[in-house]
């Protein structure tokens, strides 16, 4: 018998679309925040800060969609896991948006200062963080944990780059105290990017639970 597309199906599809929209916006903010840093583009940094308001608004809309679905539709099993995962994803995406805003604010601090060092590792961290975010959202939308392959490896790579940036900047500051005002924002940016990756892998763990009803948080199972 052919499945009839119901109003409930439409509501679930609308929730998925809202999360994808929020994820796309957040990924764009990560990209723009790093571009503002690389190019010392004050206007682009201000644009990121302004756009974070839209991310906050989407989180509230998604929360409302999820609460209405639970209250009015009383979903069971897989649908309930999908809806509750959607709420958790929106929370992580909102925090990623805040971190992109923080990067933009640090970029503003550095916009009028000469470069301390060539930016190599930080843009690489951003690219990896965006790749992780795309992968976890793809896995969520398709209900396919196979799409999470490599996510935790990329997170570890980002952690390694953060440590590398930290050690290099600390060495520079020890040798030249005048470098401190330019080094500290870069240290913070590397930390923000690491936290972005952490939130993205939180989403990956939630997707595993949604699809497989398997807990991989807090040592509850093997990660992909």
Share in β-strands: under 5%
Structural class: mainly alpha
What integer value in Å does the Rg equal?
A: 19 Å
pLDDT below 50 for ≥5 consecutive residues: which ranges? 218-222
CATH homologous superfamily classification: Phosphate transport system protein phou homolog 2, domain 2
Order of helices and strands: HHHHHH
Overall 3D shape: elongated
The biggest sheet amounts to: none
Count of individual beta strands: 0
Mean pLDDT: 93
Helix % is over 70%
The number of distinct structural domains comes to 1
CATH class category: Mainly Alpha
Count, helices:
6
CATH architecture: Up-down Bundle
3D architecture notes:
Its main location: cytoplasm. Pfam families: PhoU (PF01895). Belongs to the PhoU family. Homodimer. This is Phosphate-specific transport system accessory protein PhoU. The structure is a single chain. Helix 1 (7-39) runs antiparallel to helix 2 (42-73). The chain has helices at residues 7-39, 42-73, 77-110, 121-142, 151-175, 180-212. 80% of the residues lie in helices and 0% in strands. It is mostly helical and 224 residues long. The chain has a single domain (7-219), classed as Up-down Bundle (Methane Monooxygenase Hydroxylase, Chain G, domain 1). It is built from six helices and no strands.
């Amino acid at each position: 018998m052919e499945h009839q597309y119901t109003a409930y199906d439409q509501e679930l599809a609308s929730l998925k679309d809202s999360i994808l929209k929020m994820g796309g916006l957040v990924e764009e903010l990560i990209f723009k925040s790093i571009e503002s840093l690389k190019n010392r583009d004050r206007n682009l940094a201000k644009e990121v800060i302004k756009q974070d308001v839209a991310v906050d608004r989407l989180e509230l809309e998604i929360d409302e969609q999820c609460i209405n679905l639970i209250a009015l539709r009383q979903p069971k099993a897989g649908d309930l896991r999908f809806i509750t995962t959607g709420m958790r994803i929106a929370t992580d995406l909102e925090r990623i948006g805040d971190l992109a805003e923080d990067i933009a604010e640090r970029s503003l601090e550095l916009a009028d200062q000469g470069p301390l060092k060539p930016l190599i590792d930080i843009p690489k961290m951003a690219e990896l963080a965006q790749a992780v975010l795309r992968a976890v959202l793809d896995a969520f939308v398709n209900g396919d944990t196979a799409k999470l392959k490599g996510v935790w490896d990329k997170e570890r790579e980002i952690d390694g780059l953060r440590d590398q940036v930290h050690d290099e900047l600390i060495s520079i500051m020890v040798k030249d105290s005048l470098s401190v005002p330019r080094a500290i924002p870069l240290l913070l940016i590397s930390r923000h990017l690491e936290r972005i990756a952490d939130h993205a892998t939180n989403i990956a763990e939630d997707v595993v639970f949604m699809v497989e009803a398997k807990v991989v948080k807090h040592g509850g199972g093997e990660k992909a």
